Predict the 3D structure of the following.
Amino acid sequence: MSDTHADLPEPTVEATLPTIVELCKQRGIIFPSSEIYGGFRSTWDYGPLGVELKENVKRQWWRAMVQLRDDIVGLDASILMHPKVWEASGHLANFSDPLVECTRCHKRFRADHLEEAIAAGELASMVCPDCGGALSDPRNFNLMFKTHAGPVDDEGAVVWLRPETAQGMFVDFATIQRTSRKKVPFGIAQMGKSFRNEITPGNFVFRTREFEQMEMEFFVEPGTDEEWHQFWIDERRRWYEDLGIRSENIRVREHEADELSHYAKRTVDLEFYFPDPSMGWSELEGIANRTDFDLKAHEAASGQDLSYFDQAADRRYHPYVIEPAAGATRATLAFLYDAYRVEQAPDADGNLQERVVLKLDPRLAPYQVAVLPLSKKPELSEVSRRVFDLLKVDRMVEYDETQSIGRRYRRQDEIGTPACVTVDFETLEDSAVTVRDRDTMAQERVSIDRLPAYLDERLPRR
Ligand code: ATP
C-alpha cells in the first residue's frame, strides 16, 4: 500500500505506547481490570478521567451523526439477540480468524498477521515470532463469545454476545423506518459494547475482547450507493480532523479485492498512525458499502419483508447500506496519541522545563475547567466553592486544592484541561480570578461575574 501513500506528509505523532500506558495509569485514565488479582487478559477499566474522555468521544460522534442531522436516528439494541441473527448475517459461518499455534512454546498467533509481518520484512518466514518454533497448520477460530440464556446450558440455550452493533440496525430496519417515518436515504446509528474473542488482543485498548463501537447504517437507493459511500468516507475523516487529529496522522486505505468481506462491494479503512513497531498505520474505522446483503439475508431467514417502498417512484426495492463502523475505545486511544505533546516551557524563574501537555480538543477533554484555590485557607475555599458551583452546571469542572499551584498546573496540562481558574487573595478584594490557557499558558484576570461568558466564548459546549 505504501506506494499509493508516497506523496503524503510524514506523520507527527510524538507518543509511543509505553508513554501513553504510563500516563493513563499514573493519572487514572485507563488501567488494567481486576488489577488486585493481577489483571485479566487484556481487559481495561476506564477510571474517572477515562470514562469522561471516552463518553465525550461517543457524545461527539452522536452529536455529529444524530443530533446535527435530520436523516439519521438512533438505536440502542440489545446485546443478546436471537441466535438466528448470527446465522443469517454469516457470522456463524464466516466470522473467524486463521489461528496457528507454535508447536514449541504453544503461543497462538493470527496467520494473517504473520503473513503481513513477512510482507513488511519484520519476520523472515512462517515460524513462531517469539521462539522460532514450527507453527501448526492454520485452523479457523470463530471470534464470537458463546454463552447460555437461562438456567440450562444445553445447545438449545446457546446465545452469542454481539461481535458488532450493526445487526441491531438491520433486524430493526422495518420498525424504525415505519415509526420514524424516514424516507431513503436515511440512517440508523448505534453505539455500545461489542465482544470478540480475539486470538491476540493487545496494544493496550487497541484490540480487546470487550470494546465499544460507534456504527451507522445508511440506507440508500441502489445506484446512488457509490456516491454516498464517498460522502461518508470524506465526512468521517473530517470528523476526526475537526476534533483535533492532525491530518498527516490519518489516511484512507482502500481494501484490495481479496480483503473484502463477503458482503462488501467496496471498503476503505480510515487509518491512524501509531508509531509503535507493532502497529504503524492501523485501522480506526472501516467504511463499507455492504450492498443489500444484510436486509436480504435477514428477510430470507426471518420470512419478514425488509424491502422499502418508494412512494414517489411507486417502486419497491432493498436499499443498499453504507456503513461507517468506528471503534469508540480505539478512537479514544488515537485521540490520546495525537494530543500528547512534550514542550519546553519556562517555569516560575524563567528556566525552560519540559512540560507534557495533552492538547485534547475542549469537547473531548475530561475536565474543561479546573478551579484551583491558591491555598486551603477557608476564605479562599469559600469563594472557590462558589466559582465551582457557578461553572459546574454547564461543564465538567475539577476542584483541586492540594499541592503547589505549579504542580497542579502540570497535572491539569497532563490530563488536557483547557482552562485553569485560580482563586487567590486578590480575589477577595476584586472578585476576579486568573484564567490560565492550557496551550498558550497565557494568564488573564477575569471578574467572577463575567467568567461563565468568558468561558462560553472559548470553550465550546458539548
Ligand atoms: P481489525 O482488522 O483491526 O480486526 P475489523 O476490520 O475486524 O478490525 P470492523 O469489524 O470493521 O473491524 O469493526 C469496526 C471498528 O471496530 C474497527 O475499525 C475498530 O475501530 C473497532 N474494533 C474492531 N475490533 C476491535 C477490537 N477487538 N478492539 C477494539 N476495537 C475494535
Q: What stands out?
A: The first strand starts at residue 30 and ends at 32. The mean pLDDT is 94.
